[in-house]
């Protein structure tokens, strides 16, 4: 059917690439381009004997728009799937605009020198994408991503209006290390050490990091401590889901993770302010990333499950209604299938599905759009087909 250019070749990209190769009717050709080409070549070598998808590789520094434009002009893709880091979102969007190529990503732009992710920079491209007649699909991972699709699906099929959404992200995986992060450590630590916030009655309520704690009994996992965080999808769902009064996001953390994080924070290791060390400028958090286990190395060691989903409270025909839509995923099963643990898996599968929706023309809406703005049904079907089946409970435990 078409050609996809995938930028980045880390944990999430590796899963998305495996999944494209399982879906050769749609992804007849993929080009993997990243900063370190050797990683792209290694994946090409592993996968090309297993698939009829034609795989090529390229080297690119996605911080440079001119390099990206040259790459897109050479490869001529039908869609670009950005699986590099949030810092590269705008350069890749610029290059897609210049070459009139549809764009898909999984994380919103964050300037490298400020730990503040927001959609405003990417939404500012809306008119230019519309004029160019190309679609940008923002946030096609799990959260953001599937959580937005679940919200659109709940609204379409179960509610007249949704008033409350709690997004619950539980990782009950155990990798056996005292401290490691499940995806890019720099991005992960920036996210969890920032202030929390939630949307209520038309404005943001800010909290201290990890200030709000709840315990939740997760289906197929059991009771876990979870903490309120700010999260990307709150910003777009607050606008795109009519009738919304409050949206919160909770993520589970074990005590060992939190104790280590507090200690690293206290000694200054999570700072993104550059310091001078032996005549060279270094960023403490980037140095920390270099000494922590590579998330890709956690795959073979991680046991247990993830459970990510949304609890909705709203109204249908004047009656109050509750609904919980969630997916559970097993780390060891994921590793067996694609050589990665469930955190990368639950992001890489929806990234492939988002690119597929654009490539096969199921989703076409010129402009810059968040995932909940599209028809959720074909995406929900694809989740079942490609390894992330979801469940619905009409009588869930609620979060206080
Ligand atoms: P990794 O660090 O494992 O991979 C990032 C990849 O991007 C690496 O291959 C890296 O290259 C490449 N890269 C970095 N900078 C550049 C550059 N300037 N030019 C070209 N390539 C570059 O990250 P993850 O796979 O864990 O995360 C990928 C994305 O997914 C991130 O944006 C993350 O925020 C997002 N994510 C989204 C989730 C969701 O649910 N929505 C959940 C988890 C992650 P190199 O190999 O040279 O370092």
Structure description:
It comes from Hominifimenecus microfluidus. With 400 residues, the chain is of the alpha/beta class. 35% of the residues lie in helices and 28% in strands. The strands form 3 sheets. Strands 7, 8, 9, 10, 11, 12, 15, 16 and 18 form a 9-stranded mixed beta sheet that branches. A 7-stranded parallel beta sheet has the order 3-2-1-4-5-6-17, with helices on both faces. Helix 13 (342-359) crosses helix 14 (377-385). The longest helix has 18 residues, at 342-359. It is globular, with a radius of gyration of 20 Å. The mean pLDDT is 96. NADPH dihydro-nicotinamide-adenine-dinucleotide phosphate is lined by residues 8-13, 34-36, 39, 60-63, 83-86, 88, 106-107, 141-145, 183-184, 187, 295, 347. NADPH dihydro-nicotinamide-adenine-dinucleotide phosphate (NDP) binds next to helix 1.
